[in-house]
Design goal:
Largest sheet: 7 strands, antiparallel
Radius of gyration: 16 Å
Helix content: 10-25%
CATH class: Mainly Beta
Shape: globular
Distance between the termini: 33 Å
Strand content: 35-45%
Structural class: alpha+beta
CATH topology: Pnp Oxidase, Chain A
Order of helices and strands: HEEEEEHEHHEEEEEE
């Protein structure tokens, strides 16, 4: 089986879209590091007791490297009207996320200090429990330390299917 055949087959599996965020360890005198974010569709619940989730990160990606040193991270479950956010944070090869966060309405997570997107369907704050290398990706399993269902969040999820962002009809 070729990589293209494998990719095409799995493109037919609809997935929810999340924004994974974290704050780099402090690098400057004000005690804050730069925020980083990444769009993900390979995200899922793993366990109810304890509450665990998992995200799959490409080996050597900025988020993979960051979550290897920073155990605290967050997830915003994106609503259908947040397609622009998913597109903004899915760009490959960028050096800095600073500009990506400038015009984005976010709150700082009280547990992780990671950005949480205003209007998301739900937000989770996590601490890495385990990292498992699986081929060209790393599965990051995180314990959910806090979850919120923000008021005013969209009512339908943003979905990814056949290489495009979609919404439920």
């Amino acid at each position: 089986m070729s990589n293209d055949e494998f990719r095409a087959a799995l493109a037919r599996l609809a997935a929810g879209v999340v924004l994974v965020t974290a704050q780099e360890p402090p690098l400057d005198e004000d005690g804050r590091g730069e925020d980083a974010g990444m769009t993900a569709t390979a995200f899922m619940s793993v366990s109810l007791d304890p509450p665990l989730v998992m995200v799959s990160l490409r080996n050597g990606s900025r988020m993979d490297d960051l979550l290897d040193e920073q155990p605290l991270w967050a997830v915003s479950v994106l609503a259908e009207d947040q397609r622009h956010i998913a597109g903004r944070f899915s760009m490959k090869g960028r050096i800095s996320d600073r500009l990506l966060f400038e015009e984005l309405d976010c709150a700082r997570g009280p547990i992780t200090s990671a950005p949480l997107v205003d209007g998301a369907l739900a937000t989770l704050e996590c601490r890495t429990e385990q990292r498992v290398v699986a081929g060209d990706h790393t599965l990051v399993i995180g314990r959910v330390l806090g979850a919120k269902l923000p008021s005013g969040g969209g009512t339908a999820p943003l979905m990814y299917f056949r290489g495009q962002y979609r919404h439920l009809k």
